[in-house]
Amino acid sequence: MTEQEVKMAQKVQLYDLRLIFTNGDKDTYTTQEIVELLDKIAMAKDQQQ
């Protein structure tokens, strides 16, 4: 993977997070809730590959 592809993948992941938070039912999240969301994203990405 080239450096440009890595940067693009990172932007995609950040955008995924943004969508999760803006489309969620809550205005604030605890650290634990954020960690759980990150874990779910990581597991979903692993299953895609």
Verbal overview:
It is a single chain. This protein has 49 residues and is mostly helical. The chain has one domain. The longest helix has 21 residues, at 3-23. Helix content is 80%, strand content 0%. It has helices at 3-23, 31-48. The protein starts with a helix and ends with a helix.
- Bin the helical content: over 70%
Secondary-structure element string: HH
In the predicted model, the low-confidence regions spanning at least 5 consecutive residues are: none
Given the helix and strand composition, which structural class is it?
mainly alpha
Average pLDDT number? 87
Summarize the structure in short.
With 49 residues, this protein is mostly helical. 80% of the residues lie in helices and 0% in strands. The chain has one domain (3-48).
